[in-house]
Design goal:
Layout (H helix, E strand, L loop, with lengths): L5 H31 L6 H27 L2 H27 L2 H12 L3 H11 L29 H38 L13
Length: 206
């Protein structure tokens, strides 16, 4: 049977959604693991990652049910949701790849000022203090700040900016890869939805 056949299209769509299930479980597991071991103290970050994982799990569940039962309504909503996710993810991925240095620094500073708990996580992980300057009159989670006698700590912007470009390119590349799998899922769902099930009327294919 050629790959454009009913069974092959069904299996391809199921395999794609199983991949989404694994990715969603990985997102939820990594977020829970990071919170459990104290690597991330920001509830917002953990909640956002878990919400993305649960949303992806629900979308994959709809796709799997639609593929297994050849359910027209579920496949239709799966196509619409996946296409919307594709548009958003493609836009974000292109933005990550297109940001210049000044735009990256501005976004990093805006993100830094939004969450105190995230600041503490970054300072502790990267062993730095403050974003653009070190204020020795306030507390800092970095080990270099608490040493006696006090040592000169690097600012977090100096360390983050070294890797920000590489991280954004990596995130943009991963986002582009998954955006193409999503448009593949839309095409497979549309193609599969318009196919007739040979088991329902085998004589129609003779």
């Amino acid at each position: 049977m050629v790959c454009g056949g009913f069974v092959c299209t069904k299996n391809s769509l199921c395999a794609l959604n199983i991949l989404y299930v694994l990715v969603s479980l990985l997102l939820v597991g990594v977020a829970a693991w990071g919170k459990w071991f104290g690597l991330v103290s920001s509830i917002r970050v953990v909640a956002a990652v878990i919400c993305v994982g649960i949303f992806l799990l629900l979308v994959a569940f709809v796709g799997l049910c639609g593929a297994l039962h050849h359910h027209q309504v579920l496949l239709f909503f799966y196509m619409i949701i996946l296409f919307l996710v594709f548009m958003v993810q493609l836009s974000v991925s292109c933005a990550c790849l297109a940001l210049n240095e000044n735009q990256r620094n501005h976004l990093l500073e805006v993100g830094w000022n939004k969450s105190k708990s995230m600041q503490a996580d970054v300072e502790k992980t990267l062993d730095c203090c403050g974003f653009s300057h070190v204020d020795y009159n306030r507390s800092c989670a970095a080990s270099c700040f608490n040493k006696k006698p006090p040592l000169s700590c690097a600012t977090c912007s100096e360390i983050i900016e070294k890797y920000a470009g590489e991280v954004l390119r990596f995130v943009g590349g991963i986002g582009l890869f998954f955006s193409f799998t999503e448009i593949l899922g839309v095409w497979l769902a549309r193609h599969y939805r318009n196919m007739k099930d040979p088991r329902s009327n085998p004589g129609a294919f003779l």
